[in-house]
């Protein structure tokens, strides 16, 4: 399969992309077909690390085309990268779109040989959530929408809903996304805890902080546990990179994009990625505050969103479990968990473990964004390096203590108090 795919692959530029669209009915029809195709406009907007992304418009419609390259785009061909990630992205989008169509863009076309996907254009005024958080925009429906997305995609791809045979077939399918998983293993669970050429931080201000991470034995033991869980635990079909740069928003709409890291992994990795990136956005606010806006009200909104995201997710997830408790799910068979009290105890234990997993993974994601290879614009856009380092240090210290003490937290409200205790505004 890989050899065949290699033979049919060619990177498209604007001219060859137009020819490709005209020859592909599933794409041509979305742009109106016929004479509409004579007025096509193409804009390359791939600001990520890995792919070409084109917005294609005609007089009758618009689509997005995404093509994976056989290397990491931001580094070049010195860092090879499997193009098969495009297949897993399209597969995950389609599966999550089936389970949560309100918050997942539709895939119109996928060409495995070309590693190319055509999908719905998420039109303005949608912007990347991270950019909205930097600008201080409130999204009143964000917690509700993201809790819907996480509850539906995670519950319906787990053994709480599916039988073991179907589950293992899907796990086997997504196991082949191993290269993307190995990238996560390296940049999230390994590099920040050792000397690596890929690591960077706000030097010299955080030199000692980065060294302290590399010398913290307790932290390393906890991270080893999380890494094992990430590699071994095929709990649900996760997005695999659910940070605030993978979500597009308006005040009324939330769309989750870019699941090329999708595989069957621990649910807490998705939940933690979302919550951890909101916590990073919280700590970055002091660096964006000015005389016109001290950002204090906005910081309260971020904390409220973190709190509501977990509490709503937990509520919706357990509601789905109760609704489908007599179904095919093989994790908790109805003739064993056959009384309300027992099922309630099982659910409480399950959700407590998931909460602690989410806190651990979220903290690990925060740490890697401060002393690892890929940082976040929330913090990077703070021009004053000493001010940026101050925000980063608060986030780093918060993340380390949550990661090491995650099992001591019983509620998200306790986590919110903990986050505030590291904030010196």
Descriptive notes:
By secondary structure, the chain is of the alpha+beta class. 52% of the residues lie in helices and 12% in strands. The protein has 16 helices and twelve strands. The chain has helices spanning 2-7, 14-22, 25-28, 85-99, 129-135, 142-155, 164-175, 178-190, 207-214, 217-232, 267-288, 296-323, 340-371, 377-380, 385-405, 412-421; strands at residues 41-44, 51-58, 61-68, 71-72, 76-80, 107-111, 116-120, 127-128, 236-238, 247-249, 254-256, 263-265. Helix 5 (129-135) runs parallel beside helix 11. It is globular and about 65 Å long. The model is unreliable at 1-5 (pLDDT under 50).
Attribute tags:
single chain, 425 residues, alpha+beta, five-stranded antiparallel sheet, three-stranded antiparallel sheet, 16 helices, 52% helix, disordered N terminus, S-methyl-5-thioribose kinase activity
Explain briefly what this protein structure is.
The protein has 425 residues and is of the alpha+beta class. The protein has 16 helices and twelve strands. It is globular and about 65 Å long.
Distance between the termini: 56 Å
Number of DSSP E strands:
12
Q: How would you state the average pLDDT, rounded?
A: 96
Instruction: For the largest sheet, list the strands in their spatial order.
Output: 1-2-3-7-6
- H/E element order: HHHEEEEEHEEEHHHHHHEEEEHHHHHH
* Main sheet summary: 5 strands, antiparallel
Family: Belongs to the methylthioribose kinase family.
Enzyme class: transferase
Pfam family, one: APH
Protein name: S-methyl-5-thioribose kinase
């Amino acid at each position: 399969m890989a050899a065949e795919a290699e033979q049919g692959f060619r990177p498209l530029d604007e001219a060859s992309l137009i020819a490709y669209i005209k020859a592909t009915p599933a794409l041509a029809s979305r742009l109106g077909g016929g004479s509409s195709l004579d007025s096509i406009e193409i804009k390359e907007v791939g600001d990520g690390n890995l792919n070409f992304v084109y917005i294609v418009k005609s007089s009758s419609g618009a689509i997005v085309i995404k093509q994976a390259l056989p290397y990491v785009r931001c580094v070049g061909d010195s860092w090879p990268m499997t193009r098969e990630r495009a297949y897993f992205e399209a597969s995950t989008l389609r599966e999550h779109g089936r389970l949560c169509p309100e918050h997942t863009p539709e895939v119109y076309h996928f060409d495995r040989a070309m590693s190319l996907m055509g999908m719905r254009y998420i039109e303005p005024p949608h912007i990347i959530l991270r950019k909205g958080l930097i600008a201080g925009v409130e999204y009143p429906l964000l917690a509700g929408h993201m809790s819907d997305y996480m509850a539906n995609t995670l519950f319906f791809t787990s053994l709480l809903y599916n039988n073991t045979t179907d589950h293992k077939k899907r796990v086997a399918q997504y196991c082949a996304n191993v290269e993307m998983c190995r990238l996560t293993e390296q940049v999230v669970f390994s590099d920040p805890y050792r000397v690596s050429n890929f690591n960077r931080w706000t030097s010299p201000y955080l030199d000692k902080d980065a060294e302290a991470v590399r010398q913290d034995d307790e932290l390393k033991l906890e991270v080893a546990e999380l890494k094992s869980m990430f590699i071994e635990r095929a709990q649900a079909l996760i997005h695999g990179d659910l940070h605030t740069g993978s979500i597009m928003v308006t005040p009324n709409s939330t769309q989750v994009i870019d699941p090329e890291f999708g595989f069957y992994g621990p649910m807490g990795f998705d939940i933690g990625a979302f919550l951890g990136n909101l916590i990073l956005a919280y700590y970055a606010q002091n660096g964006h505050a000015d005389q016109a806006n001290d950002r204090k009200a906005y910081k309260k909104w971020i904390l409220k969103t973190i709190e509501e995201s977990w509490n709503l997710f937990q509520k919706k997830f357990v509601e789905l479990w109760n609704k489908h408790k007599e179904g095919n799910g093989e994790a908790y068979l109805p003739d064993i968990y056959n009384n309300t009290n027992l099922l309630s105890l099982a659910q409480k234990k399950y959700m407590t473990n998931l909460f602690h997993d989410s806190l651990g993974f979220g903290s690990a994601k925060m740490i890697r964004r401060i002393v690892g290879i890929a940082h976040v614009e929330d913090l990077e856009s703070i021009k004053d390096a000493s001010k940026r380092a101050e925000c980063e240090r608060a986030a780093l210290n918060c993340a380390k203590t949550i990661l090491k003490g995650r099992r001591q937290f019983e509620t998200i409200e306790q986590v919110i108090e903990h986050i505030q205790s590291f904030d010196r505004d």
